[in-house]
Design goal:
single chain, 6% strand, 47% helix, mainly alpha
Length: 155
C-alpha cells in the first residue's frame, strides 16, 4: 500500500471524525486506530479480527478494542463511505459505553442491529440512496417489510 493511499485515508477519516463530532456533539475518547489493507483479498485474510470475512464485508469496527479494519480498494467514493460508516460505529460504541460497565461489555450490543447498521448507513450515505430505495421497494412488493412491532427484537 502506498504512502499516498494511507495519507488519503487519514484525511478522509479526519474529515468524517470532524463531521460526526459536530453532528453527534461528542468526541471519541482516546485515539481511533485505523488498520488498512492494500486490497480486499489481503483484508479477507486478516488475523487482526476473528471470524471469516467475505467479499461483501466492506470493513469492520471492533466493539471492544475500537479498531477499524478495512481495505483500500475500489472507487475512492466507496472507501470514503466505508470509513464514514465504520466511524459511526466507533461513535456508537463510545456513546453507549460507560464507566459503570463491566470490562469487555459493549453498550451498543443492547441496541437492535437494524438501528446500529441503519444509523451508520444513514449518516454515511444520506437520506436518499438508490440501493436503499431498491431494497425497500422489493421488500414492500414481496410483502417482506417488517411490522413496527417486529423491529424491537434484539440481535
Amino acid at each position: 500500500m502506498s504512502a499516498k493511499g494511507i495519507e488519503l485515508a487519514a484525511r478522509l477519516a479526519e474529515r468524517w471524525n470532524a463531521r460526526l463530532e459536530r453532528l453527534l456533539e461528542h468526541q471519541l475518547l482516546g485515539r481511533q486506530p485505523l488498520i488498512l489493507y492494500g486490497s480486499h483479498v489481503d483484508f479477507e485474510q486478516t488475523n487482526v479480527i476473528g471470524g471469516e470475512l467475505t467479499e461483501g464485508t466492506g470493513g469492520v469496527t471492533e466493539s471492544l478494542r475500537r479498531r477499524i479494519v478495512l481495505p483500500l480498494a475500489g472507487p475512492l467514493a466507496e472507501t470514503d463511505h466505508v470509513i464514514g460508516h465504520e466511524l459511526v460505529h466507533a461513535f456508537q460504541f463510545d456513546l453507549t459505553s460507560g464507566p459503570d460497565m463491566a470490562p469487555g461489555e459493549n453498550g451498543a450490543a443492547r441496541l437492535p442491529l437494524w438501528f446500529i447498521e441503519g444509523l451508520a448507513e444513514y449518516l454515511s450515505i444520506g437520506p436518499v440512496d438508490p440501493n436503499t430505495s431498491m431494497w425497500l421497494r422489493d421488500a414492500v412488493r414481496g410483502e417482506k417489510l417488517p411490522a413496527i412491532k417486529d423491529l424491537s427484537h434484539q440481535r
